[in-house]
Design goal:
80 residues, mainly beta, four-stranded antiparallel beta sheet, 44% strand
């Protein structure tokens, strides 16, 4: 399984204390293609897109709206 992680360098630790919001754009079990935007991550007033690092079936490990931390494992992709 290919891991999907939040990049560790997206925000400073003090920004994380103010709240980070994860929004999934694809459902658990959905077929995704490498480079496809699968989630959005909002930190303060900045929004980041998270792309699929591989093609395959998406397996969500962190629910939408859950607190997220830099470097956190949020999903996996099972190669086809």
């Amino acid at each position: 399984m290919v891991e999907v992680r939040i990049p560790a360098d997206l925000w400073e630790p003090e920004e994380a204390a103010q709240g980070v919001r994860l929004v999934w754009l694809r459902e658990d079990g959905a077929r995704v293609e490498r480079g496809e935007v699968i989630a959005e991550l909002a930190v303060e007033k900045v929004q980041y897109e998270i792309e699929a690092p591989a093609s395959g079936r998406l397996r969500l490990l962190l629910p939408a709206e859950a607190a997220a931390e830099p470097g956190a494992l949020i999903a996996g992709i099972e190669p086809a």
